[in-house]
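I hope you will forgive my troubling you with a question about protein structure. I am sending you one protein, given as its amino acid sequence and as whole-number tokens for its backbone shapes. Thank you for your consideration; the sequence and its tokens are set out here:
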Amino acid sequence: MIYKYIDEKTQFGYESAVSLLEILKEHDEDEFKNLLEEIKKNHFRKRNLMSLISKKGR
């Protein structure tokens, strides 16, 4: 589901993806770390997304 928001390539989509990451982090730290690494690896060129992730202290 998170990739649906990332693939929208909109600020709202990126903010929604980051919100989902925050929820996942609260419930499953290991899965959060794995997903975050995958997102960073596959979407590093999406500067707005990476900026939002960085602002949230990832």
Summary: The CA atoms of residues 25 and 49 lie 17 Å apart. The radius of gyration is 10 Å. The chain has a mean pLDDT of 92. Residues 11-27 form the longest helix (17 residues).
